[in-house]
Amino acid sequence: MNRFQGLDKKDRATLLIEYWKQSTQVQQHFNDVSMKVRNFAVVVFSAFLTGVGLSIHNGIFLEVLGCKFNAAVLFALVGMFVTQLIHFMDTYWYHVFLKSAVSETLKLESEIKSVLKIESLSGAISVGSQKVEVASLFGQLPLPFSYSWPLKTFPLKWFFKGRNADSTLRHKVFYRWLLTIIFFVGLISLFFKPPLEFKQHSNSSTISGYIISGDNVRLRAEARADSEILLNLQIGQKVQILVDEESSWVKIHVYIQEESTIGYIHRDFIDTIK
Fold it and tell me: Rounded to two decimals, what is the model's pTM?
């Protein structure tokens, strides 16, 4: 480095070490920031994944342009978008700054090594980082775990291969798998259907909480024994009373196999749910 020409060995070494200290501090700063950003990414990912789970568990559905879908899909989409924003910030800001700081530190350590004949700390860390071996599917798709003993045994070794992964590749694997998980969770959420709606009749005064107390009870079209039989109701069938005029016949509403039917049954065959 031309900036150190004209200095004796002691002054040169002193200045190099001061530069190295500052460069290492900058490197540590960006490394800490990157780790905090990834910590935040995991928190955001967990929050949206929790939203997905709660939406599925509670059966929360949204309707957009006449199409109903589980709210978990929305949580997954927004979660993917926010996670990708964090990925972009980490990858194209702090990770770039960190790599630049490491590169400058390596140059300084190379100069220090020529003066003091000592080993390079950042160089040793970089070499060790590049030797990290992760598992990969058929040697192509890096996976977020190490290539260890179980994967090296027959027949798993046919599918899983070891692959050296430097910090840049591990960084990509981290974010890509977060995005992959939340994408597939959202995709699965598309297959959850809203519950069947019970067809209410707004022009009727309804009373819920009743069941059929007999077997093969005839639901008739009119309030008399010789009218048309609409259905044969089984014991325990839930019904709604629409009109109860304290007579022998009660007008009810029943919902069976996605079919809504209104008719009359005799009062003796209806009971309250205990």
Answer: 0.63
